[in-house]
Write a structure and sequence with these properties.
44% of the residues lie in helices and 9% in strands. It contains 22 helices and 16 strands. The chain has a five-stranded mixed β-sheet with strand order 10-13-14-15-16. It starts with 23 loop residues before the first helix and ends in a 25-residue tail after the last helix.
């Protein structure tokens, strides 16, 4: 059964241990190897060990590298190894793991680390502290979404939709021809059905969250011709307590009629708190001073106005049904997917009752695949979406080189951004988007065609889909005069990924482009093909692999670090200017005396 907690009225929130739903497949694909086994303490520790070995989750040195002989603050812990050498062994093993490639560290050594270190982390009184509680929180949202069932002393189970979520993953890693359409489909199916009142969530409100959001947006669009809801309006949605979307939409409209878009976050918080106060009607007025004083620790200002709001936007975007408008300030329906939106509103706005002890019925309901909500692995782009991409590139390329390169480097490093649109694009797609913008800004005579999946505003949902059924699989196609050039950005700094995954794929993409262009009568003028590989850093082995590729097939690949690529692009005149072997991309050779 699901863990039961004290049930009380709370604003809508989501588990934040795994902030981005796209991180779920690697975790779940590790768990899949243990399906059907009874989840015990030792098994949970072994699964957690593999998650860390594969570097899906990376603990800090203060936890995984810090030997704890005993601990008795939030829970009781005693290290398995009580010898004088334990502290040094933990330190040595941690350094070995930190310097290892993903998947290469021995299981027995990782289990040693987990049994002799701990996190000061405890979920609640029903769960052991430390690494086991960390394990539980990593999977709790997946339980809520109906992908899996993980309760101690019960069999580990996957639903149909859980298996769909990991379709393109095997033991923590994406397969060669990975497409994120499977995980996006699985998340859309789950999020469309998701209810705040479920066996894993202690809350008294009966809200079908995603259908409620869609219904509010559609109502405001149709009745008041609004461009969706303002990001700040999400605070009112997470404070709302039922599925009455008309009342909620009218409340938001009335608030904006009174304050426009000049209301402070403090004002928004006060009015949202009044929606949470069940002793008052949902009329447009701020909560009483006494209610705010009594409840401000339970319903924190930052939680209502920043944290959960950001969580909501991130999850809405993963469905591919929500567009960003007005420089990212407004959340609206993606016009290219109205059929799916209408279907969700017809099928999943009605709240269902589930016993708090019946997680099986919940898993069966949530885990059933709704075929109508699946996305195909190959997305056929319309002229509308292709044009939207070009318009977006044109608008974004008007930004200064300083802004574009600063954001390019942030994306390459995985750093956060304050830009309201860029912050809602998943890191790999954001990097592809910014590389496309750089190329569009730099190359006045070229046509830059990015292949990421985008909304009706040309803003990426996710990266290019890969090589499938006749598609070349390139991230970005660039055409200039007689040249067809492929740009292939990646944010992975890992040697194995760059050398063993990316470069062979790029080689295949260039060869496929060459073959397709030869067979296309409209491209008879093209007689030059090469590729650009752009990454946060270029590992030394890349140069050697590029040399091998050229000897094998004649395919030329030119490697660029993100920073060098951005700065160099300021002065290019032609795509051919990028055909340079940078010092960091020269292959290593034997030195001779």
């Amino acid at each position: 059964m699901a863990r039961l907690q004290q049930t009380r009225r709370k604003p809508i929130s989501f588990d934040t241990t795994i902030r981005n739903p796209e991180r779920l497949p690697p975790f779940l694909s590790i768990l899949k190897a243990y399906e059907g086994k009874v989840l015990t303490y030792d098994l949970a520790l072994e699964i957690e060990a593999w998650i860390i070995i594969q570097k899906i989750y990376i603990p800090t040195e203060s936890t995984l590298g810090n030997y704890r002989k005993e601990y008795s603050n939030k829970f009781i812990f005693k290290a398995e190894d009580q010898t004088d050498n334990a502290e040094r062994t933990v330190s040595d093993y941690f350094e070995e793991w930190k310097n290892s490639e993903a998947g290469q560290f021995p299981l027995e050594k990782m289990l040693y680390l987990l049994k002799n270190t701990t996190q000061e982390f405890r979920q609640d009184s029903s769960m052991p502290g430390g690494w086991i509680s960390r394990f539980y929180t990593q999977f709790v949202f997946a339980n809520e979404l109906g992908f899996i069932h993980t309760e101690f002393n019960e069999d580990i189970k996957f639903s149909q939709n859980g298996n769909l979520m990991i379709h393109d993953f095997k033991f923590g890693l994406a397969v060669q021809d990975y497409s994120d359409s499977y995980e996006t489909s699985a998340f859309l199916i789950a999020f469309s059905k998701y209810q705040i009142n479920n066996p894993y969530r202690s809350n008294t409100i009966n809200v079908n969250f995603f259908p409620l959001v869609l219904a509010v947006i559609k109502y405001l669009d149709e009745k008041y011709d609004r461009p969706g809801i303002h990001r700040e309006d999400i605070t009112f949605i997470i404070a709302w307590g039922n599925n009455d979307y008309i009342a909620l939409a009218e409340y938001i409209h009335e608030f904006r009629e009174k304050f426009g878009y000049r209301a402070s976050e403090e004002t928004i918080y006060e009015y949202a708190m009044n929606l949470i106060d069940e002793s008052t009607p949902n009329t447009l007025k701020p909560a009483s001073f006494s209610f705010i004083e009594a409840k401000k620790k339970d319903y924190k200002f930052k939680k209502l106005t920043v944290e959960t709001r950001d969580e909501v936007v991130r999850k809405l975007r993963m469905t591919r049904l929500i567009s960003l408008r007005g420089a990212g300030r407004f959340i609206d329906i993606d016009s290219t997917n109205k059929d799916k939106i209408d279907y969700i509103l017809q099928s999943y706005l009605e709240n269902k009752s589930f016993s708090l002890t019946d997680s099986k019925a919940y898993l069966d309901y949530m885990g059933h695949i709704d075929k109508f909500l699946e996305y195909p692995p190959e997305i056929l782009e319309t002229n509308e979406t292709l044009n939207a991409k070009q318009i977006a590139l044109q608008e974004w390329s008007k930004n200064s080189w300083e802004f574009i390169n600063r954001e390019l480097n942030k994306a390459a490093k995985g750093s956060s951004t304050n830009d309201l649109i860029l912050k809602e694009i998943k890191a790999p797609a954001r990097f592809e988007f910014l590389v496309s913008i750089v190329l569009h800004k730099a190359l006045s005579r070229a046509v830059v065609n990015p292949n990421y999946i985008s909304d009706d505003q040309g803003i990426p949902y996710s990266t290019a889909g890969g090589q499938k059924k006749g598609a070349i699989g390139a991230d970005i196609d660039i055409y200039e005069d007689s040249m067809h050039v492929l740009a292939e950005p990646t944010i992975s700094p890992a040697r194995a990924f760059q050398v063993e995954h990316e470069l062979p794929s790029i080689q295949e993409h260039v060869l496929s482009a060459n073959e397709q262009d030869f067979n296309d009568l409209n491209k008879e003028h093209i007689n030059e093909w090469f590729a650009m590989f752009i990454a946060p850093n270029i590992v030394p082995a890349v140069g050697n692999r590029i040399d091998i590729v050229k000897r094998e097939s004649g395919v030329e690949i030119f490697a660029w670090t993100a920073t060098d690529f951005g700065e160099f692009s300021r002065s290019v005149k032609s795509i051919r200017d990028y055909k340079l072997v940078r010092p960091y991309a020269i292959g290593r050779t034997l030195k001779k005396r």
